[in-house]
């Protein structure tokens, strides 16, 4: 293994560790919401620092690799993709912490019917699955899996679009939970962004392995572009 | 990490020419230190301080201290200079194997040091050819002339020859500048491997090479040490404007 290879292997390992941490943050955020677990929510907020320090480390490592090794071809695309994936993961980490913050803003636990009716849990399930699948796509060089991400973002968009009406209905059904309903609406607006970040990550994975730029391309082209 | 080599206020003159000016620098043990700078900046002269090769150039005057493992090597007795040069191996710009077989090139240093034990010599030759990442390519032709090897192989042979007498320091003066990119890559990977056991100081004109192989970098200009520090720092955020101009190719 060359010196550059060992640096790139370490960079990849750091990205994968960051990915797992952020996914873990998302899962804990969901559990904090469903179980109204304030301790868990606080842990998620606290852990955001760790996510941030991963981003800084990856930024620094990429800067060093550019400066010291002048990577080319696949190696260059890996370092470019790593920079952007690290940035996207950090934003997902922010979202996970924001949702946990909203949980801490609630005075009582969240009514299960509201969580069902607004589809926020379905949103979490889809978002977390997207994150897990982008991680697997990156780790296993599976660009076919990465391409499935784009379609799934639509599910999140639809839930987000319908959220205002559903929250309004929930408020009518549970007038004692107005505050929590509003918090759920805020959470949905945040979680919708996880889909966009995951899409960006999927684009970077395809760029890394196939040298294809899918950014700003039409959806059909992205999914069919094999 | 402790310093294997340390120079304190070293000045060197070739006749009237002031080649090194007040150089104070510590070179950490078990690391690779790269010396960079334009031609004539003093980096090779500085390198040759450590095995007293400058002594061979007439009208050379040296002041200051050059400490190796804490001992001033310019104060040692004349009969200890051989021992110093055994401890400080050197590899040059052009591969310079002896007109002998591959085996004898590596064994040579041992033989001139009075070692006659055949099995010890054989063991040492094999070990150092492995260390120099050359064994697999030459194991079936050890009796062949070293000149039959490619330039890159010859250079690795010279590294094996330097390693055979078990030095603790290896000096390399442009070790890859006469080689193609593949051979250069092999030498660089080898340098990276060897630092676990040796302290390596390398002079290079190739800044990218300094970036790839070294832990520490010193930038020399007009006989002065402008900046010394961790290679990562020097190549991402040097402290001196001159260093930045040089490494970014905006020199002069």
Topology record:
The complex is a heterodimer of chains A (226) and B (252).
Chain A: H1 3-34, H2 38-69, H3 73-105, H4 112-118, H5 120-139, H6 143-147, H7 149-173, H8 178-210, H9 219-224
Chain B: E1 3-14, E2 17-28, E3 32-36, H1 43-47, E4 60-68, E5 71-72, H2 81-87, E6 88-91, H3 102-112, H4 118-131, H5 135-138, H6 151-164, E7 169-173, H7 181-194, E8 199-203, H8 207-213, E9 216-221, E10 224-230, H9 231-236, H10 241-247
Parallel strand pairs in B: 3-8, 3-9, 6-7, 7-8
Antiparallel strand pairs in B: 1-2, 1-4, 4-5, 9-10
Helix pairs in contact in B: 3-4, 3-6, 4-6, 6-7
- Poorly predicted parts of chain B: none
* Main sheet attributes: strand count, strand direction, barrel closure of chain B: 6 strands, mixed
Quaternary class: heterodimer
Helix percent band of chain A = over 70%
The number of helical elements of chain A comes to 9
Radius of gyration of chain B: 18 Å
Walk me through what this model shows.
The complex is a heterodimer of chains A (226) and B (252). With 226 residues, chain A is an all-alpha fold. Chain A has one domain (3-224): Methane Monooxygenase Hydroxylase, Chain G, domain 1. Helices cover 85% and strands 0% of the residues of chain A. Chain A contains 9 helices and no strands. The two termini of chain A are 31 Å apart. Chain B has 10 helices and 10 strands. Chain B has one domain (3-247): Rossmann fold, CATH 3.40.50.300. Chain B is α/β, with parallel strands linked by helices and 252 residues long. Chain B is globular and about 50 Å long. In chain B, α3 crosses α4 (118-131) and α6 runs parallel beside α7 (181-194). Chain B has helices spanning 43-47, 81-87, 102-112, 118-131, 135-138, 151-164, 181-194, 207-213, 231-236, 241-247; strands at residues 3-14, 17-28, 32-36, 60-68, 71-72, 88-91, 169-173, 199-203, 216-221, 224-230. Chain B has a 6-stranded mixed beta sheet with strand order 6-7-8-3-9-10. The model of chain B has no long low-confidence stretch (mean pLDDT 93). Chain B is 35% helix and 27% strand.
